[in-house]
Amino acid sequence: MTQAEIIKTPTTASASADAGALQKVIKIRRDYNSWVASESMEDYALRFTPRRFRLWSEMKVANTAFGAASFLILEAIGATLLVQYGFVNALWAILTTGLIIFLAGLPISVYAARYGVDMDLLTRGAGFGYIGSTITSLIYATFTFIFFALEAAVMAYALELAFGIPPAWGYLICALVVIPLVLYGITTISRLQVWTQPLWIALLILPFVFVFHAYPQILSELQLYAGDNGKGGHFNLLYFGAGMTVGVALITQMGEQVDYLRFMPEKTTENRKNGGSPR
Fold this sequence. Notes:
Elements lengths: L2 H6 L3 H11 L4 H11 L1 H4 L15 H11 L3 H44 L3 H45 L3 H48 L3 H6 L13 H12 L5 H8 L18
Helix pairs in contact: 5-8, 5-11, 6-7, 6-10, 6-11, 7-8
């Protein structure tokens, strides 16, 4: 091939550039590219959280994580333990469960906050490999689906009591309301928490005020409550174990808390007293 022929032959790079210049970008692709480029849309919903994105304050992360630990269904589970196994057995089962979850979650929380990784990557880093992380993600996802379904059932029942909305429509409404939160991720969840936290605290305290006003002796009577079958008035190892079985199952929710801890800012001399992620 002569030098003139080489000059006339288009290179691969130039041919690709020409093809790219003539390519027609449709609206769907343009919208997709804008979504991918938007960090608020991406929101690092999975995997590693880059250091440059960990700009939240410690209080903001805590406020967001607090919302995930305040499901209405958790109160229902505690009440169910009380009714099923009596006050004494429910109390010790809840305290023991809390201790177990705290001890198991402490190292997980530390490493998630330190390195900005989720449960999947933590499982791999712990030596369980790809299969282990996949199983962990499956358990976490299944638990989340079940938990959300139970929470939606509580909300749908509340809508029926307050507004007379049939449960089927209540389930649909609850599902549709969650969609924007899923699309825009943890940033939107945090904003929602900030806006609704005062109202949530007020509504949480109001029933206690009403109950203590109507039944001042409720605490002394509660300590003697033996459950609906009357057999839980004293410590029973079987009831205690059954209550712990229900409580320890909630340890899976730790994966959701890790998703929030990934956004903890790195510890510096300025935020050391505020609880920045440990080095």
